[in-house]
Amino acid sequence: YNPSAKPRRLGRPRKHHQNLDSPSDSSSRNLNHALVSKFRFDNQPIEGPGSRGGKIERAIPRGKITMLKKKQSTLPFAAATSPLKAEPKRATRTRTPSKKADGSLDAPQQEKKKEPKKTVKREPKKDTKKKATKAASPKKRTKQEDQATKKLKTSKIVSTSRTTVLNTSHKISRQLPGPIVGLFYDLYDDNVLGATQNAKASSEKIAFGFPVLKNPYASDILFILEFLNKFLEIVKFPNISPQEVEQGLSLPSVEAVLSEKYVPKPAKPVEDYDVNYISPQMKSLFLRLMGMVLNRKREVTSHSSAILELKPLVINLGLPSEWRENTIKPDEFEDEPPGSPVDPNHPDIIVTRVYKSGYSQPTYNPFVLAEFEQFGLQALEPKDRLILLRVLVQWSLSSCEALKSLIFKNSQNTDIPGDKETFYASRAILKGFKNAMDTKIEAEAKFNKREDDVKFIDPTSDPLEHCFRIRIHEQLAGDVGFHIGRFYLCRMADKTNGGLASVKKMTSTWAGSGNSGELPSNFKLFVQDVHGMLESSLAYDGVDHTSSGEEIPNPRNLPDASQFWYEIASDVEELSDFVNFLSKRMGYTGTQEDDIVPMTSLIYRPMFNLFNYLSGLLPLLIRQEKVSQIIENKDEPRTSRQKGGINYNDKVASQHGYFEDGDEEGNAEEEEYEEYEEGLDAQSEDDDYME
Q: Which residues lie in coiled coils (predicted)?
């Protein structure tokens, strides 16, 4: 670069053109554009404000962590400085120059020669302290370094482990909190479980040591009922309970097995068990799901025609993992004929052995069986019946046009800024009602101070009205973490009969003023061993090593997700026992000899939220179960009674009463049922008043 020379004229380069005549399709290919020159002959920025502009054709590297604020890139054209003046600046990094230095190149060498004399000579303590502080004074920290240290202090996960699931829970967001929170796996991280302060919490068994029953059908039943409850306006199926699914499909009970992870509970004996029995509810659900997969406008009445129509679509829709085998094996290779090397100087790079290719081969397909076409669900094994209903639900999500349009419309409203999580839970249930109300007060204060346009959703409002309502686990009851697990209250319910709703609506419903509409189904309280599930998924999908550093080969088959589910309670009596058990473990009731969870423990707050939710919902469940029993008894055919003549004499009525012997109890049940119906009629007025 010659400053005295005349600068070259900057034009519009056409280096990509080989000739002067532009091609005929240049306008369609958009080749007439200016390119940013790689070098500039002035001090103007190449990019950003004040630059000449143009298109940048150099590739932008991916995976590179960039700065928060991009600075303008300028060429380092500055006034020429002599190296004699620039040299002392380099010396300041190692040691401070003396005041008598003349700035020559020999100044640092002269100071080095005087160093041994200074070490021998004794100086006053004050001077040595001053010189020591000057020499050891650190450099000024930049703003980027301060931000990096703040991130390190706020982040909880120091290193990853075999059960670490990275998420954005610790990321600072400008979005105000709402009625839903992300469902994460932080409390199942081995780094948290292995901490010394969490040793007692890590020793807890599943469900805090409460007797549980292993239930391999819980995962599929929970998935089916949550699908029916979430898309009830499209499916239009009456409420069914987990007990009705198990009994309607004739699922066999699982025997209790001794284990170190949980305290086993004996299974209830099943009377008159018949493997071939299929309830009418399960038959109608089977027909309804097949109609949704086939996009039938009318209801399916014959399973044979629907099975014949689904038979050619099975391979494209996909069979479940239980009915297929993965033929790709990690330890099998096949020879590949060598080809011509790309680089003749390195022919050793040519690969002659590759992994043996394979495909997923079906091992069981009920749609090709003649018995299934003739008898339907009765032709399958009990476990395969439940798998088939789960598969039909999955197929309907990908093929039913009504469901796809509903999901598409809901996805168009997800305009909230910030990161989106895979699954969400209700803030009021996962964090507690008090946390939701306190968060509302804090969010309103921040919303009033902010001047930018930000969307604010009340943290105490109904989570099912949120734009991410499809991603919400409606049946989640609590998430304690560690080896204790994640709790689900499996049933079909809506906001009018005790289901998920706003804090105000749930509080009024639990108090007894919201029993309007249809009764919910019966329930079952399940718990999932999430830590065990993460360990098994690592064994199949991840890479694990032994203590000596050798890699452990992955298993060929997928882990069975049903082995990590357990049943805690199936009726009000068992649920009441579990709530009392939690009360003793928290120190509310019982004696000091009980194993009380300390308030400083990491599991105390999630345990407290689980106890508050179940204890608040328990009185409503007791009333609903009592009313459902009354309705069942009322629907049963009564024995015929001998009817005599009616005597209208007042004296006879006063002597014998209005009821015959043995009929007072039945009439009392009828009066109680009539009072419940009157309460349903009066509920509409209460709802209008609450709104």
A: none
Give, in degrees to the nearest 5, the angle at Cα 683 between 677 and 689: 165
Residue showing tokens 């997700």: 561
Q: At residue 351, what is the residue type?
A: V
CA dist 88 and 99 (Å) reads 12
pLDDT range class, residue 121, cuts 50, 70, 90: very low
Q: What is the pLDDT of residues 600-613, one digit of tens each?
A: 999 999 999 999 99
CA neighbor of 458 nearest in space, from 443, 469, 446? 443
Cα separation of 92 and 98, whole Å? Answer: 10
User: Which pLDDT score is estimated for 356?
Assistant: 66
Among 15-29, 299-313, 353-367, 612-626, the range scoring the smallest mean pLDDT is 15-29
Closest CA to 531 of 477, 476, 484: 484
Look up residue 397 and give its amino acid: L
Exposed e or buried b per residue across 418-453, where buried means at least 16 C-beta atoms within 10 angstroms of its C-beta: eeebeebbbbbbbbbbebbeebbeebeeeeeeeeee
pLDDT score at 651: 42
560, 220 Cβ separation under 8 angstroms: no
> Do the beta carbons of residue 403 and residue 396 sit within 8 Å?
yes
Asked whether 338 and 318 are in contact (CB, 8 A), the reply is no
Termini Cα distance of the chain: 78
Q: How far apart are CA 381 and CA 275, in angstroms?
A: 8
At 278 the pLDDT is 94
| CB burial string 23-46: b at 16+ within 10 A, e below | eeeeeeeeeeeeebeeebeeeebb
The residue behind tokens 């469902």 is 183
DSSP-assigned letters across all residues of 442-458: HHHHHHHH--S------
The structure's pTM equals 0.68
pLDDT in tens, 498-527: 999 999 999 999 987 655 668 899 999 999
Smallest CA-to-CA distance from 205 within 646, 529, 682 is with 529
